[in-house]
Structures are given as C-alpha cells and as structure tokens.
Design goal:
Shape: elongated
Strand content: 5-15%
Largest sheet: 5 strands, antiparallel
Number of domains: 3
Number of strands: 5
Number of helices: 17
Order of helices and strands: HHEHHHHEHHHEHHHHHHHEEH
C-alpha cells in the first residue's frame, strides 16, 4: 500500500518537474498542424457581403407562378428603397436588381428534406400495416410542399450600408412583394371580380339590351354567392335589399324594352335559352348527386351498428382499409351537400327567369316615361354594382393574408469561420494529448 502511494507521489512529482516539457511537446504538433491549416486555408478577414432571409410562400398559386423578374422588378425594388429611406444612397440599376436571388429550400430545413429522401421506410410501413406505396406518396407530397420554403439572398457588394439597413431593406421588400401579389392574385379566393360601371347609349341597341340582361344575371349571381358564403362580412350592406332592388330593376327593364318589339322578342328568346341552359345544369348536377348516393347505400353504411364486431377488429391492413373507406364516404357526403346547394341555387335562378318571362308577357307599365325609366334603371344598376364591389373589397380586406411570410431575420451567410475555429480547438486538444502521451512514455522508460 505504501509502495503504491510512493509511486503515485513519484508520478505527480515527475509530471510537475516536466511541465515545461509537456508544453514543448504539445507545441510542436500544434504549431505544425497550425502551419498546415494556414497554408491550405489562410485566415483572412473579409466583411460578409451576402445576406439571407428564409421565407415561406403560403399560396400554392404563387409558388407555381413567381419568378425573380416578378419579385425583384424595378417597380418593387424602387418602392422598397423609398420605404427604407435608401433612395439617395443606392442607385436602382441592373447591378442592384441582379444582386437579389431566390433559391429553393430553407437553409435550416434542406438537411431534413435529404433525411426524408434517404430514409428506408420499409420496416416502418410493415409494422404499421400501411401500404408502402401510400407512405411513399405521402413522403412525395411532403417533399413537394417543401417547395414553399425559399431563401432570398442579397449581395450588397460595395454598397455602403450596414447590417441593420440590409435587414430593413429585406423586410420592406417582402412587404412590397406581398402588396404586389395581392393585386395580381385573388388571395381571398372568393372568385368574384369587381363589376365595371354600365354605360349605355340612347336609343338602346340590341347590344345594349344584351349588356343590360347580362348585367342583371351577373348581379343576381354575385348576390347569391355573397349571401350563401359571406353573409356576415359587411352588415352595413343589406344584400336582401339589393336583391329586392334587383327584382324591381328587372321589371323596369321589361318596361323599357317594350318600346321596341324587336328588343322585346330578342330578350324573350334570350331568357328562354337561359332557362334551357339552367335545366341542363340542374340535370348534370342531379346526375352527379345520384352517382354519389346510389340506392341510399351511403346512409346505410354510416348508420350500421358495428359494436358486435368491435372485439374482433385487429390493427391490420383490412381494418385500416375500412377506416379509409369510411373517410372516403364522409368526403362523398360533403360533396353531396355541395351538389344539393348548387341545384338549389340553379332552381332559384330558374324561378327568377320564369318570373321575368311572365312579366315580359304581361307588359307591366310604370307611370314614368321610357327615358326616365332608362335613367333610373342605369343609375340603380350602377349603384347596386358599386355596393357589391364594396362588399367584395370588405371580404378581401378581412381575409387578407401575406403570401410570403418571413421566417427568420436577415443574417449574413456563413463564411466558414465556425468550422475554422472547431478545427483549431480540435488541434489544441490533440496536441495536448500527444504531449501528455510523450511524457507518460518517458516516465515509463525511467
């Protein structure tokens, strides 16, 4: 026991007495390795001139249609410089425009995408009783959605601006691009366009009659869409009042065209053709509805009592197929409701046209002249159109979302300095271990 203590004491004393040797033996490989690193990869200071900001493109239509020419147009960049108060510092020329690029992926998520691509899911799919091709399809869709992740890069080159100004520039650029996209695309997805003002000459021509008739149909269709899908967006605009005004305008239109038998006959034929068209659309929708629910099989499958089979169900492929089948039937139910709603709207439009046709044959009269009736009709139609336009704009403002979302602050691109420092730290540790081993060998040979 005493000999072991003496040996330990001797080791400690030996290492303390050879501390200078340990430093020297560690410095030799360290300096040699450092020299090699500096020769092959010289350490020079240079300001990073490339900046990156990660973005997410929300709307799939935007993903498929955007280009660098559209995003970084002179108009967008000019507005960006103005908002950033850099118009005096930066010249908007071709070099500045070309300094912006957009690349696929997210610089922190590209490795995750590669992981999905290289993963072997065969064992996992077997254990979960899923079909391999379905999992592969899911992964393909996941990777496809990865196209929504993009990175915007900016090479400031010799521009005399700091990092804070670059961050402000990139943030304003994304805002400007979003505003531009909002004008180009219907992001609210209401599928209704604003109605232009109706300008009609006097006396009325056959073209004018067709324009007025089409305007009446368009207004009714828009009111129906707004009432069915967006009834709570603009409470100050009463759609039912607009619909009642439309009925009056249709009667007034019938009165106006009575001064010309030719116009009256043409309108009657047009209304009859519209009714025939609606009948065909109703028939087509009814056929699709019947296809989704043959002989009431859907309701029976949903209401079936499966409690007796509960104890026999196992987590195998047949059970999962049953779940997927049930999900498909629920989707059919939703589609069925849409077709029923479509049929109801078409039938209401048909009733409206039949009312107009009956009123046209009755030759209703108003205690005003034809000229006064025409003026009132045009003013009323334009007023209703403006009200609908205002309603649509309220919906767009309420449902407004950013097409491009900034996911991270703009930051300089990685210059490799972190990797450089890791190599230096590893060299220091390795050199110390080498010196320590050399001292231990010297002690053992003593």
């Amino acid at each position: 026991m005493t000999e072991e203590q003496v040996s330990l004491r001797e080791i400690i004393v030996f290492f303390i007495s050879n501390i200078k040797g340990l430093i020297i033996y560690s410095l030799i490989p360290f300096l040699l390795g450092l020299a090699i690193i500096l020769i092959y990869n010289p350490l020079t200071y240079s300001e990073n001139k490339i900046y990156i900001t990660n973005v997410l493109i929300e709307d799939p239509n935007v993903v498929n249609n955007i280009t660098e020419d559209y995003l970084f147009s002179a108009k967008n960049l000019g507005e960006t410089l103005k908002r950033s108060n850099l118009s005096d510092s930066i010249i908007l020329d071709i070099d500045f425009i070309n300094s912006f690029k957009i690349i696929n992926g997210h610089n922190d998520l590209n490795e995750l995408t590669n992981l999905y691509l290289n993963s072997d899911l065969e064992t996992l799919t077997q254990s979960l009783y899923f079909k391999t091709d379905e999992i592969d399809q899911f992964i393909d869709e996941l990777i496809s959605n990865g196209n929504r992740f993009r990175a915007i890069t900016f090479d400031k080159k010799d521009l005399n601006i700091g990092s804070a100004e670059v961050r402000l520039l990139m943030a304003n650029l994304i805002d400007v691009i979003n505003e531009s996209i909002e004008i180009e695309y219907d992001l609210a997805n209401i599928k209704l366009k604003t109605i232009q003002e109706l300008n009609i000459s006097s006396p009325l021509s056959s073209i004018d009659v067709n324009q007025i008739n089409n305007r009446l149909l368009l207004i009714r269709n828009n009111i129906n869409v707004l009432s069915n899908n967006y009834s709570s967006f603009a409470p100050e605009i009463n759609l039912q009042v607009l619909l009642a005004d439309l009925d009056t305008n249709e009667d007034l239109f019938n009165y106006v065209i009575q001064e010309s038998n030719i116009h009256k006959s043409a309108l009657k034929k047009q209304i009859m053709l519209d009714i025939v068209s609606l009948d065909k659309r109703i028939e087509a929708s009814q056929e699709k509805l019947n296809y989704l629910q043959p002989n009431g099989a859907f309701d029976a499958s949903l209401n079936k009592d499966t409690s007796s089979d509960a104890t026999t169900l196992n987590a195998d492929s047949s059970f999962i197929d049953s779940i997927m089948s049930l999900s498909s039937q629920l989707e059919n139910s939703e589609q069925k409701l849409l077709y029923m709603k479509d049929i109801s709207d078409l039938e209401n439009n048909r009733i409206s046209l039949e009312r107009r046709l009956s009123d046209l044959e009755l030759e209703s009269s108003f205690e005003i002249s034809f000229e006064e009736a025409k003026k009132y009709l045009f003013d009323s139609l334009n007023y209703t159109s403006n009200q609908i336009n205002e309603y649509i704009q309220i919906i767009k403002n309420t449902k407004r979302t950013s097409s491009i979302v900034q996911l991270s602050l703009t930051s300089p691109a990685d210059t490799g300095f972190a990797s450089y420092m890791i190599a230096i730290i590893m060299l220091i540790v390795g050199s110390f271990i080498f010196g320590l081993a050399f001292i231990m060998i010297k002690f053992a040979l003593k």
